[in-house]
Amino acid sequence: MSLLRHFPNRRALLSAIGATLLAFSLTACGESEASLNDIHGIDLTEASFGDGFQLKDPDGNVRTLEDFKGKVVMMFFGFTQCPDVCPTALVNAAQIKSLLGADGDDLQVLFVTVDPERDTPDVLREYAQAFDPSFIGLYGTPEETAAVAKAYRVFYAKVPTGNSYTIEHTALTYVFDRQGKLRIALRHELTPEQSAEDIRKVMALR
């Protein structure tokens, strides 16, 4: 099923995603000894963005990448009322963790809401943990959310639907190494097996 089928403003989403991927190609095209080879995702080793965040978990604790040092982190931006893309991404994340076997304990999945108005801490906790008890939902004020999304070049926008709204958003999962450095962007269409292969390579980096 096409990712765009759920979004009425397809032209805007396509333009935003195209601009994001172009930015990735421009910032991550350099060769480096630390670069990853033969990966399915986008190598962001040379990227000049995505160096951290400060958001709250459902218990109200301020969390940063430093909290997860020693683990490989997968971070996805979405919202709990997302009809397809977000639950699929988190189902895939749970499958990736399972595919990693014992190494799955070294994987931390973070779900950052772009809908803090509706995604209250309790809703966010229940949603993230429904996919795996270790998954953590993160939120900020609308202003903090916008700042973090901008820092990671994530597009999102409200789209009216009757008396409510849905949200168009970038569907990429970011992968950070054990030191908190951004390494890969995983496209939504990758299989859990392909993503797990990429994450194993990130886990092997020292």
From TrEMBL:
The record's listing under PROSITE patterns reads: PROKAR_LIPOPROTEIN, THIOREDOXIN_2
Name the chain's protein. SCO family protein
Q: Which InterPro entries match?
A: SCO1/SenC, Thioredoxin-like_sf, Thioredoxin_domain
Q: Where is the Thioredoxin domain?
A: 44-206
* SUPFAM superfamilies named among the record's database cross-references: Thioredoxin-like
Q: Where is the signal peptide?
A: 1-30
CDD domains found in the cross-reference section: SCO
A Pfam family it matches: SCO1-SenC
Q: Which family does it belong to?
A: Belongs to the SCO1/2 family.
Which keywords does UniProt give here?
Answer: Copper, Signal
